[in-house]
Description:
alpha+beta; globular
Amino acid sequence: MSAHCAPNLDLPAAASTANLRHVEWFHDHQRIEAELFDGAADPSGGLARPRPDAPGHGLELRAAAAEPHRVA
């Protein structure tokens, strides 16, 4: 089992998968997710863990940070 793309969305489900091999963590995805969401995991050192203090994926949109990207 490998998780691909959107690592912060995949991380909680991947962490609960017994036969997990790896979560692909692309720099551009991490940069965007950390910019636009509070609660993004930090993969420094090669280890990332889901948030134990928030339900689901644990991400909260930073509306002000997303505003410049709004198209409608």
